[in-house]
Amino acid sequence: MSSQTPDGRPYHEQPQWRNDFPIDWPQDEYVARRDFTKFLVLTSFAFAVGQLWIVVENFARKRRGRLPVRRIARADAIPIGGSLVFGYPAPHDACIVMRTGPQQYVAYNQKCTHLSCAVVPDPKRMCLHCPCHNGSFEIATGVPLSGPPRRPLERIRLEIRDGHLYATGREVRA
């Protein structure tokens, strides 16, 4: 590629600022094969490291063992047909528990399986509703009833001990 000034005049006729900051415009746009290959290798390496990090995190999570047992509330504090939002397994992981009968409770992760919007109880339709894309899930099973979600909600295992409701684990279903 030949080098040429942007206005076509010879270098000695150019203004002083152009001589102080010479930019070879045709060469500035040019990317050598070696530079492009270097970019591809470094980008591929970054993706490989990211995938390896995900594998290590999953392995470490499985090694940690069981999830904690966390007290949610007094069992009688939730009225029949009522619900309560709680954090499980960590405080920032939003879950929702609903009381469907005198001694019947169900709990799910509050993230919709479509795009992770928060699901809310819809007592009129007897379902959990995702307002983002008008999806709904069956309260008893967490199975999608309508809308874009195709996977059921992640269920939280519950136990009643000494009048208190406890979250004891998760059930991930496909």
What topology emerges from the helices and strands here?
Elements: H1 16-20, H2 25-29, H3 33-63, E1 70-74, E2 83-87, E3 94-101, E4 104-109, E5 120-122, E6 127-130, E7 135-138, E8 144-146, E9 155-161, E10 164-171
Antiparallel strand pairs: 1-10, 2-3, 3-4, 4-9, 5-6, 6-7, 7-8, 9-10
Question: Could you characterize the architecture of this molecule?
Answer:
There is one protein chain. The chain is α+β, with helices and mostly antiparallel strands. It folds into 2 domains: 11-63; 70-171, 3-layer Sandwich (Rieske Iron-sulfur Protein). Helix content is 24%, strand content 30%. The chain is built from 3 helices and 10 strands, in the order αααββββββββββ. It has helices at residues 16-20, 25-29, 33-63, and strands at residues 70-74, 83-87, 94-101, 104-109, 120-122, 127-130, 135-138, 144-146, 155-161, 164-171. The chain has a 6-stranded antiparallel β-sheet with strand order 1-10-9-4-3-2, with no helix packed on it. The protein has a 4-stranded antiparallel β-sheet with strand order 5-6-7-8, with no helix packed on it. The model has no long low-confidence stretch (mean pLDDT 87).
